[in-house]
Amino acid sequence: MDGFIDYQIKLMRRKTIGIYILPDGVVEVRAPKRTTRQSIATFVAGNRQWIEQRMALAEQRKGRPFNVFGRPRQVLVELGQRRYIRLSARQLRIVILPGDDDEAMRQQLKAWLLVIARRYLARRLVANLDWCHVLRVDKPELRVRYMRSRWGSCSLSGRVNLSTTLVQLPVEFCDYVIAHELCHLRVFNHSPRFYQLMQVLQPDWRLKREYLKQIETGVEVMQIKSYLHR
């Protein structure tokens, strides 16, 4: 760190110092193995304007972040020989096939969300099974699927349906939706009695409800050109 720009150093077999902006926005300085940190800091400081310009351009190409488990991840779309998606601490990397269009990428993302959500939401339901005891209802059958305009629903048969897009939310909001649907197993409407039960399970349910009204998952508007890395 030179006081202005954060960067990571990679010492390797090469003759000169080079600066690279990685796909996830990290500045990486690659230098000969015996290069001193002071020499690297001086080189970075001398190229600060260039680095800032390249970082700004990279940020524009990335498009809007995509939230996973409540944390924004920069999306990087690449062309490859097989489709796959890889999640890291700061990045969601989507590898598509040449010729894939926006809808193909969205379907790929939805399929990936389904795999992640089935495991995650099942764990969240188990973590909150005490709510079933409080409500005096049985553990419901869980069905997970992509829902474009709803976070969840339930049926008279006792099945709870949860949207794959819940994995984009912070865990407390995911749990709020689960609480909401469990309360419907007891009261299948939005009567005062329903909200009394919500008050028991989620005392701040009003704030969480308002927050969710403002959230857009972004799945339906994602475009390859906004994230494609060449």
UniProtKB/TrEMBL annotation:
**InterPro entries, sorted:** UTP_pyrophosphatase-like, YgjP-like_metallopeptidase
What Pfam families has UniProt attached to this entry?
YgjP-like
Protein name as catalogued: YgjP-like metallopeptidase domain-containing protein
What range does the record give for the signal peptide? none
Task: Give the organism's phylogenetic lineage.
Answer: Bacteria, Pseudomonadati, Pseudomonadota, Gammaproteobacteria, Cellvibrionales
* Organism from which the protein derives: Sinobacterium norvegicum
- Domain (YgjP-like metallopeptidase) ranges: 15-214
